[in-house]
Amino acid sequence: MFQEDEKRFSYEDHKTTADWLLSKTHHRPLIAIICGSGLGALADSLKDQVSFKYSEIPNFPQSTVHGHAGCLIFGNLNGKPCVCMKGRFHFYEGYPIWKVTFPIRIFHLLGVETIIVTNAAGGLNQEYKVGDIMVIKDHLNLPGFAGNNPLVGPNDERFGTRFPSMSDAYNADLRKLACTVGKELGFSDFIREGVYCVLSGPSFETIAECRMLNCLGADAVGMSTVHEVIVARHCGLRVIGLSLITNKSVMEYDSSEKPNHEEVLETGKWRAEQFQTFVSTLVGRIELNNNF
Ligand SMILES: O=P(O)(O)O[C@H]1O[C@H](CO)[C@@H](O)[C@H]1O
Ligand SMILES: Nc1nc2[nH]cnc2c(=O)[nH]1
């Protein structure tokens, strides 16, 4: 961790990336969207697109996971100026945790106010079905218990305070709005609200781990999102998180089920249209310009 600290990007490095992007596009996004595994189709619905491969953006890491295309797309979604990450970075790819969350501070410097963080997750809650969309109410940062928090290291006050609160990480108004929009779209049967737990991955959970996480109060488990949310809250972004339950976590020793990435991507494809409609309707209804 400390070796990596030496190469940590400074505030000025972040500015370089943000200014480069602002100089290359006329878009001025107020909403950022991170597409989870298999959910990249969401980005394709942006109108008037300006797209950058991660490899051409100064300081940007590269996507290495199947189902994460690796481009940053600017455009309008349902009339709102958005920027969309088609592909995110994960700790298990070998990136230090501050690099995983690097784009979040770029969004802040671009003028983004609200971030929609999506992911594919395993369903620990026994009432959840594959294809359910869980509005994230709260999270468990298990790697954080062992010191893996993206804010570890020197704090630059220009981004945020040393000790940010996380009791209000997932904005209550936006969660309410998501549930209302879900009802209006007739999606109530598969919209849930629950707690997301992050693990480092890349191995999926054992049966004992799934049982433990469920006892701890987690409804869904994944390998992303939480670090991004912590950094987003640190720099004052308003957050809404959405998990697509792509598989049921295996909780019984006589089960022959095994979680796998192909199933995760398949569920993403299967629910893509409704997921897109849900996010796009939500975006259309989000109030902007610090009106919160
Ligand atoms: O969280 P996202 O990026 O949606 O991806 C989830 O799906 C992958 C496992 O299939 C892991 O990367 C897990 O975190
Ligand atoms: N850790 C974890 N990540 C996932 N991403 C999608 N499904 C799963 C899962 O079952 N476990």
From TrEMBL:
<feature type="binding site">
    <location>
        <position position="68"/>
    </location>
    <ligand>
        <name>phosphate</name>
    </ligand>
</feature>
<feature type="binding site">
    <location>
        <position position="205"/>
    </location>
    <ligand>
        <name>a purine D-ribonucleoside</name>
    </ligand>
</feature>
<comment type="similarity">
    <text>Belongs to the PNP/MTAP phosphorylase family.</text>
</comment>
<dbReference type="GO" id="GO:0006166">
    <property type="term" value="P:purine ribonucleoside salvage"/>
</dbReference>
<feature type="binding site">
    <location>
        <begin position="88"/>
        <end position="90"/>
    </location>
    <ligand>
        <name>phosphate</name>
    </ligand>
</feature>
<comment type="function">
    <text>Catalyzes the phosphorolytic breakdown of the N-glycosidic bond in the beta-(deoxy)ribonucleoside molecules, with the formation of the corresponding free purine bases and pentose-1-phosphate. Preferentially acts on 6-oxopurine nucleosides including inosine and guanosine.</text>
</comment>
<dbReference type="GO" id="GO:0005737">
    <property type="term" value="C:cytoplasm"/>
</dbReference>
<feature type="domain" description="Nucleoside phosphorylase">
    <location>
        <begin position="31"/>
        <end position="283"/>
    </location>
</feature>
<comment type="function">
    <text>The purine nucleoside phosphorylases catalyze the phosphorolytic breakdown of the N-glycosidic bond in the beta-(deoxy)ribonucleoside molecules, with the formation of the corresponding free purine bases and pentose-1-phosphate.</text>
</comment>
<keyword id="KW-0328">Glycosyltransferase</keyword>
<dbReference type="InterPro" id="IPR035994">
    <property type="entry name" value="Nucleoside_phosphorylase_sf"/>
</dbReference>
<feature type="binding site">
    <location>
        <position position="224"/>
    </location>
    <ligand>
        <name>phosphate</name>
    </ligand>
</feature>
<protein>
    <recommendedName>
        <fullName>Purine nucleoside phosphorylase</fullName>
        <ecNumber>2.4.2.1</ecNumber>
    </recommendedName>
</protein>
<keyword id="KW-0808">Transferase</keyword>
<feature type="binding site">
    <location>
        <position position="37"/>
    </location>
    <ligand>
        <name>phosphate</name>
    </ligand>
</feature>
<feature type="binding site">
    <location>
        <position position="247"/>
    </location>
    <ligand>
        <name>a purine D-ribonucleoside</name>
    </ligand>
</feature>
<comment type="pathway">
    <text>Purine metabolism; purine nucleoside salvage.</text>
</comment>
<dbReference type="Pfam" id="PF01048">
    <property type="entry name" value="PNP_UDP_1"/>
</dbReference>
<feature type="binding site">
    <location>
        <position position="120"/>
    </location>
    <ligand>
        <name>phosphate</name>
    </ligand>
</feature>
<dbReference type="InterPro" id="IPR011270">
    <property type="entry name" value="Pur_Nuc_Pase_Ino/Guo-sp"/>
</dbReference>
<dbReference type="InterPro" id="IPR000845">
    <property type="entry name" value="Nucleoside_phosphorylase_d"/>
</dbReference>
<keyword id="KW-0660">Purine salvage</keyword>
<dbReference type="GO" id="GO:0004731">
    <property type="term" value="F:purine-nucleoside phosphorylase activity"/>
</dbReference>
<dbReference type="InterPro" id="IPR011268">
    <property type="entry name" value="Purine_phosphorylase"/>
</dbReference>
